[in-house]
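Quick sanity check, Disease resistance R13L4/SHOC-2-like LRR domain-containing protein:
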Amino acid sequence: MPGAIGTMYRTGQSKGKEEIGEAVDLESQGLSHFDIGALRVAGTCIRNITELNLNYNSLSTLPNDIASVLPRIQILCLSGNDLKELPAVLGSLEELRSLSANENEISLLPVSLFHLPKLEDLHLLGNRLKQLSPDICHLKTLRNLTLEDNQLCDFPSTFGDLESLHTLEASENNLEALPKNFGNLRNLAVLNVSRNKLLELPDSFGDLPSLQYVDLSNNYLPELTPRLASASRCLVKFSAADNLLKRFPPWIGELTHIQEIYLGNNYIEHELPEHFGTVSGNTLRHMDVGANFLDHLPSSFGLLRNVETLHFGSHIMEIERRAFQNGNRITHLPESFGLMLNLRHLRLDENSLNCLPESFGDLYALEYFDVGQNVLRKLPASFSRLGSLKTCLLSKNNIERLPEDFGNLRSLERLRINRNQLRELPASFNQLVNLQTLDLVENRLREFPACLNQLTNLVRVALDDNDFELDIPEVNNLDARAKYPSDGIHKFVKTTEPHPETKSDKMTSALANAVKKGDSIWKPHLSNDQDMVTATNLEDEESDRGTSESCSDLDLCHTTDGESTHGLEGIDDDEAEDWDMEVEDNNPFSCDDVHTYRHNTTMRSPIGTDVLKFSFVPSDGHPPCLPVPDLDFHFEDGQFEDAD
């Protein structure tokens, strides 16, 4: 039988190491039958085995002689097998201290199991238990009991007699109530009964003096017993999120050791207790009261000077925010808010905030800030002092301008300010040297923010649905115009025979000529000569070179007043009628003559004195580079369609 065998020792004060037993590890060996005789290996005495690991095999039974053959066994691991029951013979393992039988199909426990005199740990997670025997009270040494993910509807009335119980994990069952004598568990420090069907807590729940970690989340509790105030002075972490609470428990603010509070997604109305923060201010680190109906924070709230995480926002996914308001109703923050100098993570999304206090800029440690879906019109000038801020989410407000020194936020990596009223970005915006993601969708920007070209770490920009308006100084002098196709571009192959009407190649350029008549998406000109458009997915079939950027809006190529107008030639006759441009016989340009055009580029004819000027309109926000391919480039349908 494969596996690992090792010797366990206890270090003595006078005799050095003292052998206390053998540990046998047979985890994940594919065993469907366990033969104790197979443990007889050289140098190993079966009766000295104190730890046996049979986790994650395919065992459906255990040998009946396990107790007589392994009398010294202390730790027995049976998790992840196919056991439907535990044999009664396990009750004879008088030295057994820990039994793990998680993730089996056990529906009933033998009564003999509850008479093990030294059992401290019993783990039965993920089975099919529907009830526990009243005899469980005889496990006087039991400290840790795991019953998660079973089908228990209640605990026996004797459950409170487990006088040594320290940790009870019983989440994801069908518990509707706890026994009345539950408060007799005087040593209970960790309690998890989340994801059950609890409707109330017994009065004795307030008699648990040792409680440190309590999770009551995802139940149906309408209130919490006020007696917890006097009995639970040791509470460190408390969660009653996702219940039916209508009132913030006033005694929570009196807990002198509390570090984490989770009360999100309830029905708590109005405000937190006025004294909140005066007692818990030195210990509280994390607080979540999001998705309630709070409309006010007490003036003492800023006394929570050691708090690191505050959540007053929504508990639903962002995709749902457009349909549901799920935060609180807070309209303003107290001026003392800026005193929380250790605050790193703050969520205030989906509230009714119309302003932030000037002291907000004193939150020097703040790294994450979400104030999306409020009614802010501006940010305080002090906002630019948030030197540690990395993520700033300002979506769905009414912000019209950012502070002039917004660029001082040099740690900023992610900025979402979509769905606001911004008309321009401050001049200091180009100082956001670490910015990687920028969302400016649905604002009122009229010009493309030139400062973005200086943000070298920027990898994602969204500028959709703004009010970009550009000057068109020569729009009345257009002599020829080609329409950019919305449905693709035909393939063109370089011709080897001269056109019948001329000995030169008649195509002006690949981009000027390869424009099929389609829906017009004209845009005005840019006046900056350095502006260029960008081609997407152009692949040179000879050299396997290609551009990685995109050209969404090549909308206009034209000649200006007084300049030569030349048509498109070198295309089939049946295609000529699809072009919205005058066709003339004398075309001195060929694609081999021109490889890159800038906006307002002026080219002189190679066979004459005519001058042709090309103007291109760039796609918003794309990199300024337009390589014009040779004629033997093939243009596939859809290559120039808009990219995000």
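Posting the structure with no commentary besides this: The helical segments are 66-69, 228-231, 510-513, 573-576.
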